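Q: I'm writing up a methods section and want to include an example of the input and output format. Could you take the sequence below and give the corresponding predicted structure tokens, formatted cleanly so I can copy it straight into the document?
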Amino acid sequence: MKRKSIKNSSRSVRGGATSQSCFDDEKYIKLQSAKIAERIELFGDKLYLEFGGKIFDDLHAARVLPGFRPGIKTEVLLQFRDKAEIIFCINAGDIEKRRVQSNHNVTYDIELLWLIKDFEALGISTAAVVITLYAGQPSAEKFKNQLEHRGIKAYFHTHTKGYPTDVDTIVSEAGYGAQAYIKTTKPLVVVAAPGPNSGKLATCLAQLYHEHRRGVRAGYAKYETFPVWDLPLKHPVNMAYEASTADLGDVNMIDNFHLEKYGVTATSYNRDMAVFPILKNILHRITGQDLYYSPTDMGVNLIGQCITNETCVRRASSNEIIRRYLNSLCDYKNGLWGANMPERIKILMDELGISVADRPVVAAALVTQTKKKANAVAIELDDGRIITGRDTKIMSASAAAVVNVIKELSGIEDKIHLISPVNLHPTLKLKQEVYHESRLNLLDVLMVLAVSATTNPTVELALSKLPDLRDLEAHSTVMLPRAEINTLKKLGLNITCTDEFAM
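A: Here is the clean output for your methods example:
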């Protein structure tokens, strides 16, 4: 799998008469780059920048801030191409458990290898990979060997002795001093990871300890997109962040440290608030001075200053919360999470006064299901029209809906069949004999259409409309197989499902 270019098109709000950008991405690159450069200058020799969230494909940000390019943060880092290098962190426990990165449905170790390759393509080198919280996990040792065979430096970091309460031990040779020191040569060291809870902060602090012991004036800052500190606590953008981290139990909070010091209200969240007093103390012990007076002080995020349409962003964020709620109901039904996860998101929806009824594709799909007595998928076009498809003997509801949409967008009459019997019957026979499946799924249909397009201009025209599906809203009346969901997501559809098993 290859990632999309970082110069991917801006996201837009769908479901109305026009698509609309709500975010100034060029302003963001300019302001964000200047803020990071300012922080590097503040410390003099070196800045360790903890990088939170997705780097190449922040799809959540793109959905709640239409106009925000999913890979725009890499464009910010490209401004420092000659001054930056990267340390990647990965939790040894995540390697052992084979934890999966949701965007690409691959394990964290594979995602990390992709990240290294992607940054190499941008001309930003990897200083090392730190395998954190190592406690003898065999899979972690195997991954370290794999990295070293690829010529990538890899280190183990164990639990820091004394953490979190015994600061005297933490900031000593028995604490951070016992962790491996990673030699870096650039003034900006980005510390990133394939997912959350990967030990980025601990790695930054251990490096700061080693750097100051060596006489290097090094500092720390945090680049995390959400919550947005200069948006209100109950702003839909910040509430959408809570919905996205419902599994982690994150709760947005007023940064009382910031309010007390500066008299300015800022939004933070529970984990940063809880750790800040300890972090402030540790930083003071390492550097001999108070670097920050609040969690907000640590951040370099200026995303809030680049929103250009408040109404548009509020609508997009509310839609994201509804999607998260529907997905959480399915996860609960499949036994992936407890009931508390959808309950948390439902509380957010109630606070905003929104409901599933605000998602038109849900009702449209259910109407088709009732009328046709079959599982159905609905897709909402840019102009508000909704096209549906249902399960048939030949293809799945997802496949039927996508075919109906690209025919509609191409102006092809409904009675015209895009798949000829010459291609259809052999494919169906193969599915039945080899996979014991009675109908073609979406990927099957797309592959058959791709073959047909080489000799059929009508099919070629229909397939040319596939990029127009990006960012459209879609809903299924039943929980779809993972493979079907993955294909829909690769087409860029914002797919949700009713929490019902397939008929």
